[in-house]
Design goal:
Blueprint lengths: L1 H11 L7 E7 L2 E7 L5 H5 L4 H16 L3 E6 L1
Parallel strand pairs: 2-3
Antiparallel strand pairs: 1-2
């Protein structure tokens, strides 16, 4: 899942070298904390959060297929 989020985020932003993902495991779920450069934050979130929601939807679909629960947190 971490690689999937990293690939999507790097495809969207202007500074792909600034994309960092931290994986935190809690109980039955995995939290992926995505951080990007300040000037790329708007691109990752999108208007009314549409891109962020799309990223979360794709990750949840892939996680469900593997029987996992993944949460994407954008910081």
């Amino acid at each position: 899942m971490k690689e999937l989020v990293e690939y999507i985020a790097k495809s969207i932003v202007d500074n792909p070298s600034e994309v960092k993902i931290k994986e935190v495991k809690k109980d039955q779920s995995i939290i992926l904390e995505l951080s990007v450069a300040d000037e790329d934050m708007g691109k990752v979130i999108g208007k009314r959060g549409r891109i962020a929601k799309a990223i979360r939807t794709v990750v949840n679909a892939a996680a469900t297929k593997e029987g996992k629960q993944v949460v994407v947190d954008i910081k």
